[in-house]
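Encode chain A's predicted structure.
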Amino acid sequence: MEDIQEDFSGQEEYDEGDKPLLSSYNPRYRPTRLHVQRSSICSRAYFVVVMVFFHVYILNVIGLLLYVHYNNGSGDLVSGEGASSSPVGDSGTSLHHPAPTSNELHVEDYSPSVSLPRIEGIRVGHVQQVSLFPDRTHEMKTISLKPLLFEIPGFLSEEECRVVVQLAQLKGLMESQSAASSQGQEESNQSLLFLSTEEVFSLLDLNQDGLLQKQEIVSHSRSRDGTWLSPHSLRQILTSLEACPTGILTLEDFRHVYDDSQHPSQEQSGKPRSQFKQRSKHTWLYQGPGSHHVLHTLRNRVTTLTRLPSALVELSEPLQVIRYEHGDFSNAHHDSSPPHSKTTCAHTRLAGNTSSLAEVSCRYLTMLFYLSSVEEGGETTFPVADNRTYEEQALVQDGFDLTDTKETCGRGNLRVKPSTGTALLWYNHLSDGRGWMGELDEYSLHGDCPVRRGVKWVANSWVNVDPNHQQQARYQRVVAQRHQANPGMEEQYQPLSHSELHQDL
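Encoded structure for chain A:
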């Protein structure tokens, strides 16, 4: 202690001898202590500021990644040629010849994060620029929000339209499978319905125990010779059976259900009375490897516009080309079907549930291409577009059925006149809230007005998606495995025979 005091005194004497100070405190000792304290405080504040900025930066990066993910999709379920990240095609009337591509399919494991991008409509009349060619942009106009419907003039050049029409003529057109039946055909179909209720019950009762069970109805629905019992009747019978507490139907129960399914009281309920009818000629054009370069380019252009995974477009139905002559039309209908646990999508039947009630078309979106203009008539009509609400009873107005476009086309809410090269894009399904395909958008009801003068050529490009994303992924793996087993066969790229199933619902 004495040594410390002597040191302090000596230091004080030295300071006083060198330069007198006003204060008796050590001037060099005091600032040193304050300097250390200020440095410590500044270091802590600096650390806090740096950490705050660092966390804000990380949050911004995560937000940017999520923005890119949900606006551009999370990558293809199956990656292949024709990616949507680069524009395809060229401007003008000259036709682009794409470079040869590999036929190999690469399958990635299914990820729950895979989503289906949707184009935002913003509002009716909104125009946005889309890049479909390297050196030009197209205007895409929102013409309806219910359904989400866009119009893109100049999607195809006149030369491309001419080539597609010529390819369809070269392949040959056939009468539409869903054409309005002739009187003779109607009588032939009616003769199949002369079976009594007891006879129908006996045919469905496979084990002949006098009771109708669910598996017996499902087994019958898979039969190809059951044309006398429509899928609608089968669904109605199955629904009634499931509602029965015992889970079975007796003959007496079946009699009430079957009679109701065969004679629905549509007029009393005010629902549409007409069945879907269409009068036209059509054919299907393959768009995969080895197809005409115009068809291949058109498919890639659809991928670019929709920003969907390329595999969904590549493994969808071929291009349908339709010719409407004078008086030809199609009644209002939906291109797709509502999701149902007892049905399976026709395009995924390779990996489908063998006990499903029926096979239906599952079309996420529709792209319609006008290959020609029409002098008079032939409009595409959306009877209930942008209605405040959708009710089937509202389709009958003043005794007129709005689904009967042959008689009531002019009463539809929205009509689009055909113009060569123009394309329409609409979504047949809503989103399920998780980025996948949800319920059927009932506002997508549409039809074709009768052609009054001229000839109408159109083409339909549908993108098939299974509402069950895991089922879709299994289907794509099955297709890829078959393709790898037979890499030289182009048919493997066309995974199922659409000839039996291609028809508007």
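The radius of gyration is 34 Å.
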